[in-house]
């Protein structure tokens, strides 16, 4: 393939895969609740309140009294490919290069949300309130175990940690109610927080974060009798969200050879008709048939993913493109 043809192919694939999902035109609104997903502070909730004349993503001590967090939620950048936190949590400094990943509640699994609630309830006036959150988190872990997304060993560790943390919460509540010992209660609460953070830390990403669709390389089947090629994308969604497919054809050197039926005969398929009667010049074919690029963008309301296939002959396309979030929340 010549340099020019290679450039055109790359350009066509890039255009097709993201044409249906334009990038954000304005800075993202980072207000709301975020949760640390990994590391020593895993599960810690961080609140970003709206404050005029302050930078986007500002985490103030006023909004995060329990964790004494102060800093910023940062957009993905060269330091960290995820949304991440920079600042302090409970007096411990976190640099941007530490890449402490955070997830908005809109992109968090119920397990992570419940564990964050359980940590937020580690306050001296209501330590017993975390029990319900811990049980709901354990329920989610049991579902994942049954679904095969969580192995038995990790589940056992999560279950042990959650039950241990619950005992510490109850002990702290008893100390405060019956004995009135703030010192002993604080010890139990601090230990409970550490255990909950460890539980979140050992949980696999599938239990903490919404997962993007899983795409496979596009399959192409050429039918000689009709001079047509059917393209199929066999995508699945790990979290069970419905998928939508946006197909497109970019013909590289035969501008009239563009008869293309998208979402046919099924939503995850498309057909390129390339007979002489369809306006196609077979003298312009290349090593893989007609020199066009067929692309598909697969979305599930949370993520967008792309895949492409070059040519009209039977075969299997290259690896799908990386997925990206459609929004922050």
Reading the helices and strands in chain order gives HEEEEEEEHHHHHEEEEEEEEE
Largest beta sheet, briefly?
Answer: 7 strands, antiparallel
The global form is elongated
Query: Please, what is the average pLDDT?
Result: 89
Global Rg: 26 Å
Number of helices: 6
Strand content: 15-25%
How helix-rich are the residues, as a percent range? 25-40%
Derived structural class: alpha+beta
Number of strands: 16
Question: What are the segments in which pLDDT stays under 50 over at least 5 consecutive residues?
Answer: 1-5, 19-26
In whole angstroms, the N-to-C terminal distance is 43 Å
Overall tally of domains: 2
Describe the structure.
The protein is an alpha+beta fold and 329 residues long. It folds into 2 domains: 32-208, no CATH class; 211-325, Immunoglobulin-like, CATH 2.60.40.10. The protein has helices at 3-18, 110-120, 130-147, 152-179, 182-202, 205-208, and strands at residues 32-36, 45-48, 58-59, 70-74, 84-89, 92-94, 100-104, 219-223, 228-232, 244-251, 259-262, 269-273, 292-299, 303-310, 315-316, 324-325. α2 runs antiparallel to α3, α2 (110-120) runs antiparallel to α5 and α3 (130-147) packs antiparallel against α4. The longest helix has 28 residues, at 152-179. The radius of gyration is 26 Å and the shape is elongated. Mean pLDDT is 89; it is low at 1-5 and 19-26.
């Amino acid at each position: 393939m010549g340099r020019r043809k290679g450039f055109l192919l790359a350009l066509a694939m890039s255009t097709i895969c993201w044409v249906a999902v334009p990038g954000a035109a304005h800075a993202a609104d980072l207000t709301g609740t975020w949760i640390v997903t990994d590391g020593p502070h895993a599960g810690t909730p961080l609140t970003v309140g709206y404050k005029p004349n302050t930078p986007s993503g500002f985490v103030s001590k006023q909004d995060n009294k329990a964790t004494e967090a102060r800093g910023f939620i940062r957009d993905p950048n060269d330091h960290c490919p995820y949304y991440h936190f920079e600042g302090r949590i409970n007096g411990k400094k976190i640099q941007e290069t530490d890449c402490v990943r955070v997830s908005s509640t809109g992109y968090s699994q119920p397990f992570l949300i419940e564990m964050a609630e359980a940590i937020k309830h580690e306050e001296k006036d209501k330590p017993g309130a975390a029990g319900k959150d811990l049980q709901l988190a354990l329920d989610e872990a049991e579902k994942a175990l049954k679904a095969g997304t969580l192995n038995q060993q990790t589940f056992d560790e999560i279950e042990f940690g959650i039950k241990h943390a619950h005992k510490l919460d109850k002990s702290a509540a008893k100390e405060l109610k019956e004995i009135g010992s703030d010192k002993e209660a604080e010890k139990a609460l601090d230990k409970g927080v550490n255990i909950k953070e460890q539980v979140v830390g050992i949980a696999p990403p599938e239990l903490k974060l919404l997962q993007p669709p899983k795409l496979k390389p596009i399959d192409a089947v050429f039918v000689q009798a009709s001079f047509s090629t059917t393209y199929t994308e066999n995508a699945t969604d790990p979290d069970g969200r419905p998928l939508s497919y946006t197909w497109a054809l970019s013909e590289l050197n035969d501008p009239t050879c563009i008869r293309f039926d998208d979402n046919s005969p099924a939503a995850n398929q498309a057909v390129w008709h390339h007979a002489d009667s369809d306006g196609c010049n077979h003298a312009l074919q290349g090593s893989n048939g007609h020199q066009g690029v067929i692309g598909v963008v697969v979305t599930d309301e949370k993520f967008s993913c792309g895949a492409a296939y070059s040519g009209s002959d039977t075969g299997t396309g290259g690896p799908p493109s990386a997925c990206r979030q459609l929004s922050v929340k």
